[in-house]
Amino acid sequence: MFDTSTFIRLLPELILLVTALVVIFVDLYARRRTALGLLPGLSIVGLALSFLAVFAQWGTREVVAQTLAADTFAAFFKMVAAVAVILVVLASVRYMRARTRYVGEFYAFLLVATLAVYIAVSARDLITLYLGLETLSIVSYVLTGFLRDDKRSNEAAIKYFLYGAVASAIMLYGFSLLYGVTGTTDLQEIARRLLNGDVLVNMEWLAWPAIVLVTVGFAFKASLVPFHQWAPDAYEGAPTPVTMFLSTVSKATGFAVMARMFLVAMPALQSSWTALLYGLAVLTMTLGNLIALRQTSVKRMLAYSSIAHAGFILMGLVAVTTALGQPFNGLDGVLMYVVAYAFTNAGAFAVVAAVEDGTGGATLDHFAGLVGRAPFLAAAMLIFLLSLAGVPPLAGFAAKLFVFAPVVRQEYYVLAVVALINAVLAAGYYLKVVKQMFFVEEPERAPFAVARSMRWALWLMIIAVFGVGIFMNWFAFMASQGAAGMLGL
Amino acid sequence: MVPLSWYLTVAALLFVLGLYGVLSRRNAVAILMGVELMLNAVNINLIAFWRYTRPDNVAGLVFAIIVLTVAAAEAAVGLALFIALYRLRETVNVDEIDLLKG
Question: Is residue B101 included in any domain, yes or no?
Fold first, then answer.
């Protein structure tokens, strides 16, 4: 059962696992000074190797050990996760060193979280899906509360944990009903039995509550309104590099599993889950933006903004179609948005981390006159905010284009108009930060330097944000291949 | 033999009871106990469905065992967080942890 080809397909996961173990052991036996320099480097090498291992297998379409799908859809999300976590590691070098003694565990946990993402996005079985999602959640709680002597970090972790535990219990109840109705845990087999009516007699109606319950669990992971209450608190209280991780990789995973669950296991019930997601999308983007407007902490504002963006990503899933050969499929839009948003949002939170390092806080006041104190940070933040607002030729524009197009194409005009109004609303509060940075004078505060690894991370993200925007076609091609890998086009 | 629907009813009641505990309790440990009730409801569902529909296929059993295991891991992390919370503030009442809001 476990032969060479299985081994090769699992190589990206194995590399991550081995790297995590090596990090723990190096942390245990190396002197503290050596460890501090070595651990981030080791983690990055592991992540990069795992990225290459995924990239080398691009285009395969296999099932590993009957539970993991090695397809382009999973590969796409794995590559985004690997790159995003590399950026998180770069951004956390100085930040974590200044705040905790346990840096080794921090990087090990980040690697294990990435491994959980790998498993969750390629799971094609209810049990594996649950295992992947839950591993990711449990590791995320620990990462959020990593600064255990910091009241805010601890509070964030408690809130995240309590919401997360309840959401996953509700989702599991949905899984149990789905298993009961169809008698199988394999997603494709579930779809086949639902389609053929090969289900538990007189109990087929249980599939409806199952959809709702399962959606609760995914909506929690992707922080969709009304299951978002944990997100602002967790994002604000968590160490900022962890916030980078939660708001990009963890959220993308929520969308990946949601897409696979609905498109692979429940194509027969598409009209009902589309209606559900439609409502969630409208609620999420509107509420997220309205609350973001009146925030005074930039970190918290970005948290609400990231909730609003989840609504935009969801638009793509609403407009998904399994019809052949259409340009602008909704699922392409989801993948496009995830890439663009990962770089942009990770960038914005990285700037927040750097400002926190330099000034001790992340409220609008701390950003006042940033251009005079750290011109590079101010310029980087400007680029990320413009990208979040969707200004061409940046990544955010490409992302918005690829979710609006399928929505209009599928004739969801009301949704398109709501989204358009929301895009304008969002630009309002992004510009508030820009005004603080460039047009408010703050002569008393001294200039501050940015850590070298952080500068590297910011440069990479700036290049990526321009890259995705300018080479939109290439990314769209990859996204459509990724989507096709699962849709079976 | 007891019909399947009886088991499902008990599980549904247990699930709602757990959810009620989660929503009404203010003590973090009591909330965690509510969550455990919900997970046990899931397990009753899984085992009952397995026994009555596909006793030849072990998927339901495996699922239930994995749910048990993960629930234990989750409780370990949760209780560790609660202990850290108690050390910092001498309370595990969720109404009193309100530094982050807005």
Answer: no
